Description:
The structure holds two protein chains of two kinds. Chain A is α/β, with parallel strands linked by helices.
Amino acid sequence: MLNxxxxxxxxxxxxKNIPTENYISQGHRAxxxxxxxxxxxxxxxxxxxxxxxxxxxxxMEIVTSPFPQTAWKVPWIHVxxxxxxxxxxxxxxxxxxxxxxERFKNDPPHVIAVGGDGATADIGLQSLSGALERGHNFxxxxxxxxxxxxxxxxxxxxxxxxxxxxxxxxxxQSIGQQTWKKDLPAIAAAHNIPxxxxxxxxxxxxLMNKVKKALTIEGPAYIxxxxxxxxxxxxxxEKSIEISxxxxxxxxxxxxxxxxxxxxxxxxxxxxxxxxEYLKTQRRFGHLSDNDINFIQQRTDARMAELQSxxxxxxx
Amino acid sequence: xNKAKGLEVSLAIAEAVKQADVDVVAAYPITPQTxxxxxxxxxxxxxxxxxxxxxVESEHSxxxxxxxxxxxxxRTYTATSAQGLALMHEILFIAxxxxxxxxxxxxxxxxxxxISIWNDHGDIMSERDIGWIQIFAENGQEAYELTIxxxxxxxxxxxxxxxxxxxxxxxxxxxIEPINFIDQNEVDKFLPPxxxxxxxxxxxxxxxxxxxxxxxYIESRKQCEQALINxxxxxxxxxxxxxxRFNQKYRLIERNGAASPKTVxxxxxxxxxxxxTAVKELEESGQSLGQVRIRLWRxxxxxxxxxxIKDVEEIIVIDRALSPGSHSGPVAQEIKxxxxxxPQKPKIHNIIAGLGGRDVTVKDFKKMYEMAxxxxxxxxxxxxxxxxxA
Lengths: 316, 390
């Protein structure tokens, strides 16, 4: 698993060596129970001070940068909604040229692009694809809270089937979101980039190790992070971590990584809990019937079987 | 300067960018494209230019990557045209709002629909208020020289704004012209390495592009506007310095023709050369005529313009773009608004000519003059050469 160039001497993050420093300060404006800012904080802990962040328009951009305040202790730039991967491309290219021309003295910093699911799956998919294809040495982090939360909970192509949002409302003629969640990690992996992973702040060591690997390996990396949103999901703020764990324990959001095309499930769930237990924690799913839930269960099982078969075929 | 060499103007512009030793070129070959960025990619490929060439997947990403690399402290260049410029629209405001001295060539071309690859100024006239410095070149030599000067203007710490050098698509970009190139050591003496004011440097972290709450948004925009207004003095200064060094005088507003003409044509871009031929020929037949060229379009050089048309009885403003639903073309709107406050105003005619690459010849300018004299033009504006059978 760790035989990729650069990962031979990989030192794992454990409970004993988690960096103590934070690079997003306290006092930001995120909602109570926001798992997205929690996840971003974990990403930044691993990235460390020699990092430049390009942030797409969205929750994280808004809550961390109301002028004249900023929560960022590293250089950070927000340009627009759909172009953060392109902005990161420019930063990486600029630093590369300056380093070569000896006008940038220090070690080249990590370049991290951050976007929500709307910025990544919808409006920014083209610029993400371009940046991954061109092979820039950067990490793209998608913080997926499964709808446009910053603008008032509108559906995105990453909203799960059956969820009620302000633009996929449930009604006599509608179950809510009528399409299945777009598989962004698979789209990223289709670019044949060296590192793709899913992560979840409920499994913080797994998340931080994935960030560390992504930043260690040369070339583009993509991490898709499940980000519980009490405001948009109509869930209890104090339950965000519990819900995050349930998403993995029910196979709704499996954790895996793909290193050079080899897929490994990083959190094996021997006895998955029924998806019903996950769905009932969020009022966005409150209207679903038994039949609907059974359908979601079947799709979830099928998707998991598909992943397991991808894992076994890629280990051969 | 060396002996003139015949070269396609796009390639001369690419040479200027190479001589400016840019660090990053981010570009996309949207239809219609020019040879500028192709040539730059060749320079990078064969080691003549030490830069990162980022072949982005759209013009929107071209400007976005340019913002990123300029914010990282790299001298950054891109080129575009028509639909590409329109696609960049959103990010153009951000480039000036973040005060990033990106240099861009705009090969001016008509906007769709119907799709056209030919010249007019509809693309850049839709981007008047982006907060960029906007200059128009008249010929290939000027396009080459202004491109080098553009870096110095944009990167001046009194300015720190993006700049676009407008060059008429096809009419200039694809024309082979004799170009006098400047020696590299002279360029190096003129243009020092880029020293950004603030960069995304982990040693000194800054937050760029924060949320502008209502308490600060206006002040932020005002600062950008003030920087643009202030840039006029720097443009003059840099062009004066250029004149001293290279014996080419570039004024913000250029006036040619008779010493105290009754009538002047107002033009921008390559049309100025054709107009000047018409003016000369009409002068020879005893008419009192002149021509005023607007070289700097943003910030608009009000004082210089008023000075150039002082004591003129009549002006014929040639617009190469339509402003549908308005009373005039964009340039005439600008001038009419400016003259409103003046105690003495010339009579203003407005002609919209050469849309979508339609030829405008010496004969056309003579006819325009004649119609203006005889009061045969529409009091608002006349779209020149529209066929009634079309």
